[in-house]
Write a structure and sequence with these properties.
By secondary structure, this protein is an alpha/beta fold. It has a 7-stranded mixed beta sheet with strand order 4-10-9-8-7-5-6, with helices on both faces. Strands 1-2-3-13 form a 4-stranded mixed beta sheet. Strands 11-12-14 form a 3-stranded antiparallel beta sheet, with helices on one face. Strand 8, helix 8 and strand 9 form a beta-alpha-beta unit. It is globular. Bound molecules: 4'-deoxy-4'-aminopyridoxal-5'-phosphate. 4'-deoxy-4'-aminopyridoxal-5'-phosphate (PMP) binds next to helix 4. The site of 4'-deoxy-4'-aminopyridoxal-5'-phosphate has 16 residues, from helix 4.
């Protein structure tokens, strides 16, 4: 594959933008090498500046569940655009999207739209603290909740990828109220709760982790977490920025039958435009300004273009059979990858829930961040690059989840499996 134009663009970008990118994982530091510069995308494919075509499993890191540039979504965007880009005043489209989210997800009684997942989690935690009048929060090793100062503790992929557990520029005092537990280990949560009785405002987690690769919860873990939060008056926040409308229409909370107090959304809810949201129990959400004392605001919050795109995306996802179709594709990919690994005598753990997946070169189950860290990163990196060169674009880090869209065909999946086979074979010879 030719990459000279992307190479030149990366050099230029690096002169102007730190590391040449506007979000760190895109720079390929974890896997090495340089990123292709993408100029357009359609359906299941992205195209780079040198004209190379890739089957895309990044999906803009989650939003592109319908596939890229879905015609109905583009029409909705164009219709909204013609009326103006942003008014900084209430619009009917905010009401429409709020109603749609409430119709789909029963735990949402009230919702506030923001512009990113980071804002959603940050704001949800602020509300939880305001509501409970407590300061401390519990998060889990390997869960990423955006880049608010006090959440950059054991935060999964981005920080993991850079090899820095925490970020510089965050005063120690800012993270003093952030307590870290082990995912899928309820005892680790109980210990913290016992140590700080009636001081924990919130437990926040990705109900299915996507930022340490894809890691599934044990059903009892989520149930016990819910019970513990009820007993202690702790606000349970599900960060469904990645899993919302992805692992099921109604999110991970429907699959595991848990009603969180608050839920954070991002990615799919904006269909590819910058949107985040947080919502849940009315009693808690009514603490938000202007109704209540918890301040939270945004110039572009509820932007009409983003609302229109989000609404159309959710409407299309509500069509019958969409998640069944995603499951069929996911199963095919999982089956194929496992068969290939077995054929080559390579230990592989494939974690998947619907159209969200990741694979780890390890012989143990991956149930938490430490398990994920045992995987063979060198082999992943080699396979990643070989697949990229052959036209399959996986997320450029072994600690990221992959996403299948409704536009991926079973032929695309089969081609991906054949590519994995070739890439693994070549990587094993090299090693
Ligand atoms: N929460 C989760 C679970 C995420 O995966 C992400 C982003 N990958 C965020 C929060 C932050 O969202 P954003 O990048 O839109 O700020």
């Amino acid at each position: 594959m030719e990459h000279s134009i992307s190479h030149k663009l990366f050099q230029e970008a690096s002169l102007h933008i730190p590391g040449g990118v506007n979000s760190p994982v895109r720079a390929f530091r974890s896997v090495g090498g340089e990123p292709p510069f993408i100029v357009r995308a359609k359906g299941a494919f992205v195209y780079d500046a040198d004209g190379n075509e890739y089957i895309d499993y990044v999906g803009s890191w989650g939003p592109a569940i319908l596939g890229h540039a879905c015609p109905e979504v583009l029409t909705a965007l164009y219709e909204a655009m013609k009326k103006g880009l942003s008014f900084g005043a209430p619009t009917p489209s905010e009401v429409a999207l709020a109603e749609k989210v409430k119709e789909i997800i029963p735990s949402i009684e009230k919702i506030r739209f923001v512009s990113s997942g980071t804002e959603a989690t940050m704001s949800a935690i602020r509300v939880a603290r305001g509501f409970t009048k407590r300061d401390k929060i519990i998060k889990f090793d390997g869960c990423y909740h955006g880049h608010a100062d006090y959440l950059l503790v054991k935060a999964g992929s981005g920080a993991q990828t850079l090899g820095v557990p925490d970020s510089a520029g965050v005063p120690a005092s800012f993270t003093e109220h952030t307590l870290v537990a082990i995912y899928n280990d309820i005892e680790s949560v109980k210990e913290i709760v016992q140590k700080f009785p009636k001081q924990i405002a919130s437990v926040i987690l990705e109900p299915v982790i996507g930022n340490m690769g894809c890691i599934l919860p044990q059903a009892s873990f989520l149930k016990e977490l819910r019970r513990l939060c009820d007993e202690e008056g702790i606000v349970l926040i599900f960060d469904e920025v990645m899993t919302g409308f992805r692992v099921a229409l109604k999110g991970a909370q429907s699959l595991y039958d848990i009603v969180p107090d608050l839920t954070c959304f991002g990615k799919i809810i904006g269909g590819g435009l910058p949107v985040g949201a947080y919502g849940g129990r009315a009693e808690i959400m009514d603490c938000v300004a202007p109704l209540g004392p918890v301040y939270q605001a945004g110039t572009l919050s509820g932007n009409p273009l983003a609302m229109a795109v989000g609404l159309k995306t959710l409407e299309l996802l509500q069509k019958k059979g969409q998640y069944e179709a995603l499951e069929v594709k996911g199963q095919a990919l999982e089956r194929g990858f496992k068969a290939v690994a077995e054929q080559h005598g390579v230990a592989l753990t494939f974690n998947r829930i619907g159209s969200m997946f990741s694979f780890f070169f390890t012989d143990r189950p991956v149930r938490n961040a430490d398990d994920a860290r045992t995987a063979n990163k060198e082999l992943f990196n080699s396979v990643f690059h070989k697949m990229l060169e052959k036209g399959v674009y996986l997320a450029p880090s072994s600690f990221e989840a992959g996403f299948i869209s409704l536009s991926h065909t079973l032929d695309d999946i089969q081609k991906t499996i054949r590519t994995f086979d070739e890439a693994l074979k070549e990587s094993l010879i090299k090693n």
